[in-house]
Amino acid sequence: MPSSVGATKAALTELIARLRPSRVRLVGTIFVLLGAGVFEGATVGLLVPLLAVLVTPTAGARLPVVGDLLNGIPVGSRVTVLGFGILALVGLKNLLMVAGSRLAGALRFRSVTELQRQLLERVMASGVATLERHTSGEITDVFVSEAYRVNRFIDACLVFVQRSIIALSYVGAMLALSWRLTAAAVVVGAVVGFAGERLGRKVQHSGRELSRASGELAREVTEVVGGLRVIRTTATEAHFAKNFGAHSESHAAADVSISYSLALQQGVIESVGVSGAIGLALLAHHLWLATGKLDVPHFLAFGFGLVRLLPALNVVYATQGYITAVVGTVEHTLRWLRLPAYPARPFGSERFPELTDGIRLENVSFSYADGHTPIKNLSCFVPAGKTLAILGPSGTGKSTLVTLLLRLREPSTGKISFDGEDYWRFSAIDFHRAVGLVEQEPFLFNVSIFENVVCGRAGIDRNAVLAALKLVQLGPLIERLPQGLDTVLAERGTTLSGGQRQRIAIARAIVTNPHVLVLDEPTSALDAETEQEVIAAIDAASVGRTTIIVTHRVSAMKHAAYQLDLATGQVTARTSDATLPQPAARAGV
Ligand SMILES: Nc1ncnc2c1ncn2[C@@H]1O[C@H](COP(=O)(O)OP(=O)(O)O)[C@@H](O)[C@H]1O
Ligand SMILES: [Mg+2]
C-alpha cells in the first residue's frame, strides 16, 4: 500500500491539474492565509515585551526589535501601547482569516461545480461499451456522494493548509523565543507525526472500502426501485431486503471503522502530544530556567505559544486523518474523470446535406470485447427512399447492427457509407439530425411531452412538435390532456401506455425531418391492437425516408422493398420494383 501522504499528494496534484481554472484562487487563498499566520506569530512575539514590562516596567529598553520603540514611550504607557498593539494584530489576523475563508469557500464552490461538470462531460463523452460495465446506481453515487466527499476533501486540505500555516507561525514565534525549547518541541512533533502516519494507513484502507461500499449500496437501491414490479410479483421482498441489509452493513461498517480509526489516531496523537508538552516544560524548568539560559517572560510567552499551538496541531492532525480517509474516494472519482472518450477516432465535421444515393455496408464485422462476433462480413445496400427490413432470430446481432448504423459502436472492420461518404466523416449534430432512431424500449425523460420530443435540439418549434405528434396519431391525446404539450411525464413515461410512449419516441425521431429512420423492433413490446396503431405511425413516419426496420411482424414490413436475413447475411427483394444491385456493382463503389 502506498503511504497515506504519497496517495494524498498524488490525488491532490491530479485534482489541481484537472480543476485548473481555480489555480489563481488557490494561490490567492493560501497567500491570504499566510498573511493571517504572520500576524498570529507576531502576536505571540509581542507577548514577550508585554510580559517583560508587566514584570519589570523599565524592561523595554533591553528588548530586541521593540526595544527602541518602547524607549520612546513613557514607562507608564508601555503596557497600554503593547496591549493595543496585540489587539490590532489579532484584529488584522482575524480580518485575513475571514477573507481567507471566504476565498476558500469560493474555491470550493468552483472546484465542486467544475468537478461535476467534468464528470458529466466524461460520462456523456464515453461510449456505450464503457458505460455498460457500470450500473446507473454506481454512476449516480459518483455524482452525489463521491463528489460530496471530494468537496469535503478539498475543504479539509484548505483547513489543513490554514492550520498548518498558523501552527508554523507559532513555531516561528517560539523559535524566536527559545531555539532550545523549539528544537525539543520539534522532536516531540516528529514522534506525533510518525504515529499519525502509521495509524493513517488503516484509515485510508477504510476510506477506500467506504467508497466501494457506497457505490454498491447505491446500485442496490436503484435495482430495487427499478425492479420493484418484479420483486412484488415474485414476492421476493425478503430476499432483496437481505441483500440490501448486507450492503448496508458493509457500508456502515466502513464508516464506523473510519470513525474508530480516526478516534484512535486522535487519542494516540493527543496523548503523545500532551506527554511531550509536559516533558518539555519540565526540561525547560530544570535545564534552562534554573541555569538562567531562559528568563521568565520568554518561558511564559513560549508556554502561551505552545498552548495555542496544540489545538492548531490537533486540527492539523484531525484534518490529515480525514484527508487520508477520503483519499480513496478522490482516487475513485479521478478514475471516472479518466474515462476513455468515445469514439477513439473522432467524428468529422462534414455536413449531411441529403441522402440521394443510399446507405452501403461493405464487409462489415463487429466483435464485442469478449471476442463474440455477431456481425461477420456483412455487405448490403439500401437505396435512398426505400425500406429495408432486417430479420433474424433473437441474438443474431440485429440490435448490434443498429448501434453500428447509429455510430454508437464502431465496426471492427469494413466500411459503412452514406452516399459513398464514410459515415464517420459527418459531424455529430448533422448526422444525428439526419438519422432518427426508434428503439424497442423508448426512453422518456421526466419532463414535458414537448421537451421529450425536442430533446434539447435547437430550432424545433411547437408547430413542428405538434405536426410530428399528429403524424403519429397522438393529436387526440394531446388535446385531451389539460396541459397539452406541456404535460410533464412521469419518470420513464410510466403514465402513458406502451403504444403512446413508442409513438412519442417516433415523433422525437422524425421531428428533425431526418433522411433516414432506423427502428429496432419498435412493436415487439406491444399488444396486437396497440401494435397496429404504432405500425400506422411508422408507415406515416417513413414516407419519403430511407427506412431500416428490425422487425418480426409481417405487417410492419409491408412497405419494405428489401429484406436482410441477418442469420445468412442475404438480402432479397420483396417488391417487384426493387432491384438488387449486382455483387460486382456493389464492390465497385
Ligand atoms: N454488450 C455486449 N457485450 C457482449 N456481447 C453482447 C453485447 N450485447 C449483445 N451481445 C451479444 O451479441 C449477440 C447479438 O446481440 P443483439 O445484437 O442484441 O441481438 P438481437 O438484437 O439480434 O437479438 C448476442 O449473442 C448477445 O448476447
Ligand atoms: Mg435486439
Characterization of the model:
- With 589 residues, the chain is α/β, with parallel strands linked by helices.
- The protein folds into two domains: 4-337, Up-down Bundle (ABC transporter transmembrane region fold); 358-588, P-loop containing nucleotide triphosphate hydrolases (Rossmann fold, 3-Layer(aba) Sandwich).
- Helix content is 62%, strand content 9%.
- It contains 18 helices and ten strands.
- The chain has helices spanning 4-18, 23-55, 67-71, 78-125, 128-131, 136-177, 179-226, 228-234, 237-289, 296-337, 398-405, 428-434, 449-454, 462-471, 475-480, 498-510, 528-542, 583-588, and strands at residues 358-366, 375-383, 387-391, 413-418, 421-422, 435-438, 516-520, 546-550, 562-565, 570-573.
- A six-stranded mixed sheet has the order 6-7-8-3-9-10, with helices on both faces.
- The protein is elongated and about 120 Å long.
- The relative contact order is 0.08.
- Residues 582-589 have low confidence and may be disordered.
- Bound molecules: adenosine-5'-diphosphate (ADP) and magnesium ion.
- Adenosine-5'-diphosphate binds next to helix 11.
- Adenosine-5'-diphosphate is lined by residues 132, 368, 370, 372, 374, 392, 394-400.
